[in-house]
Amino acid sequence: RAKEDHYGGTRRFDPILAQNLAQKVQLESDLRQAVEQQAFTLHYQVKVDARTHQPIGVEALIRWQHPERGMVSPGEFIPLAEETGLILPLGDWVMQTACQQARAWEIAGLPLRVSINVSARQLLQPDLQKRVQSALQQSGVRPDLIGFELTETAILKHGKSAERTLNALKDLGIWLELDDFGTGFSSLVSLRNYRIDVLKIDRLFVHNLKRTSNDAAIVRGVIEMGHALNMTVVAEGVETRAQAELLTELGCDGLQGFYFARPVPVEQLCLDHAPRLRRAA
Ligand code: C2E
Ligand code: MG
Ligand code: MG
Ligand code: MG
């Protein structure tokens, strides 16, 4: 595909576009440098059991501390990393770091599942299984303490080979989670052949959730279908007690969101949750 597609594809001079382009080129070169220097950290956000509110796992979320711009959100640089292919070395770093952290918690007697976000581009790597295997072996972590969060779009982009790729990952012993469910165009029916363990309901549905809303009906249906397919259902973006209670009533197994915990650096997570994590272990 021509570069023009990515950068807007217009021929007339447009100062805003030119400025955006200059910013993007700058960000890309900064990102390249940051990948070389591994200038990233992982924050971790707890997922809790809907009934007991005990931690059941954590999600690793990448953070980039940019020298001039401060914290750049993954929403801004992950798409750029995907576009440029930098997501491959970056994704390897995330995988290795998250596996090492999961192993450290395991050794400390807190066997917490660490879920890693994996993008479409990573899923398309022919040697993905080897890369995952090497991250598992180098860290020594139990594979069932690692989850991969994949979106339906990433799986469907993969076409026919998705089933093989996901099978290969499952055969390594890691958990597969379907992230942001409900925002794509697929249905659970089209995903029934994949060995997915966890369904994460997108926060879009959680946001306006009221007992009588259409969203509540959708969420109830999704949970029931997920359960029928032997999946654990987790809701993301839970911000209020009312949402947590309703989701639990609707049958959700796990909850994640600012109401319970924000994504925090590992030291903070240990401070915030150590007693509860130990009780859960
Ligand atoms: P995601 O995987 O769906 O992660 C959830 C996002 O929602 C995170 O944003 C998290 O901080 C935010 N969040 C959690 N609880 C709440 C809540 O109660 N309310 C609201 N409003 N937001 C909440 P974040 O960390 O900015 O990450 C954004 C996206 O960037 C992630 O969405 C994921 O798609 C991507 N991402 C993050 N880390 C990685 C990574 O290591 N690799 C890849 N490939 N993608 C990543
Ligand atoms: Mg996620
Ligand atoms: Mg999500
Ligand atoms: Mg999301």
From TrEMBL:
Show the stretches that span the lipid bilayer. Answer: none
Which positions fall inside the EAL domain? 24-277
Q: What is this protein called?
A: Diguanylate cyclase (GGDEF)-like protein
Q: Could you read off the lineage of the organism from its UniProt record?
A: Bacteria, Bacillati, Armatimonadota, Armatimonadia, Armatimonadales
Within the intact protein, the region shown is 457 to 737 of 737
